[in-house]
Amino acid sequence: MRVSSILFVFIVETSVKAAKTATRASSFAGSTTAAIFPPVGADTAANSLFPNPSVVGYAGPTITGDEAAVLQTAPAAPFVDSVFPLVEPQPLEAAPTASFDILTHLGSLSPFRSLPPTTFGVINASAVVPDDCTLTQVHLLHRHGARYPTIGANEVAAAVHAAATSEEGFEATGPLKFLNTWTYKLGAEILTPFGRSQMFNLGMGFRVKYGELLKEATELPVFRTLSEGFNKFPLSY
Ligand SMILES: *[C@@H]1O[C@H](CO)[C@@H](O)[C@H](O)[C@H]1NC(C)=O
Fold first, then answer.
1. Contact 131/1 with Cβ under 8 angstroms?
2. What is the distance in A from the centroid of ligand 1 to the CA of 125?
3. Could you read off the pLDDT of 194-227 as tens digits, one per residue?
4. DSSP calls for 14-51
5. How far apart are CA 206 and CA 232, in angstroms?
6. Residues 48-96: pLDDT tens digits?
7. Phi (first) and psi of residue 223, to 5 degrees
8. How far is CA 138 from the centre of its chain?
9. Distance, CA of 126 to CA of 103 (rounded, Å)
């Protein structure tokens, strides 16, 4: 079993209470509900990510949709398996094997992906909230989206360059022929463009999965971050 180290999502479900079961249409069936955010009375002045509506211009006559709660209401949990717009590279002289997916072996560049809920050995585990339970709280802990390698990790490139600039030089042939004109093109430390989109999509995914929790909030959600790795998440949440 292999767990992607790029993002580690840790969700804690707490506080179970009985769900109501509707037997006939309610008087409000078919009426419109909409979300109100930030929570009424929440102090938004201290946080530039949540400016007061009056300073972001007239929103117009439109209303936003109501908050979603996919894990509470959908028949299946959403599963992250898209790597768009990445394309799996083809090995130069070997047929790709079904069992080896190089996109899961790219270290810090690997795309985040969901694992089956039973991955950690919990029998019959499911990401979907059971009918008789209600999700009341979510905690998310993660590091970063896809990022360039650590500074100094390009040792192979350094060795190739040292050989190329040495007195005797080198000439690569066969499958390694590309080395004759190859350059190292990765940056260091910061998120890749794909990594930035991961952060944005993660925030959007959380809004769709858990947005309904905001409706009972009396304070703004807490975003704690130390680096650029996190700053796209609140943009889409
Ligand atoms: C897992 O689910 C199956 C099918 O619903 C059920 O027969 C089995 O008892 C469950 N196992 C546990 C440990 O809950």
1. no
2. 10
3. 998 988 888 899 899 998 988 878 877 776 665 5
4. ----PPP---S--TTTT-------SPTT---TT-TTS-
5. 13
6. 666 666 666 666 677 788 889 998 888 888 988 889 999 887 766 666 6
7. -115, 115
8. 15
9. 26
Q: Which residue has a Cα nearest atom 2 of ligand 1?
A: 124
Say how many Å lie between the CA of residue 68 and the centre of ligand 1.
29
Q: Is 144 in the active site?
A: yes
Q: Which of 139, 142, 144, 161 is catalytic?
A: 144
Give the torsion sign (CA, 2, 184, 145, 194): negative
CB 91 within 8 A of CB 175: no
Domain ranges of the chain: 68-147+190-236
Dihedral sign, Cα of residue 210, residue 212, residue 216, residue 222: positive
Nearest alpha carbon, ligand 1 atom 14 = 124
Q: Number of C-alpha atoms within 13 angstroms, CB side, residue 60?
A: 3
Pocket probe mutation, ligand 1, options 118, 122, 123, 124, max atoms within 8 Å of Cβ? 124
Residue nearest to atom 5 of ligand 1 (CA): 124
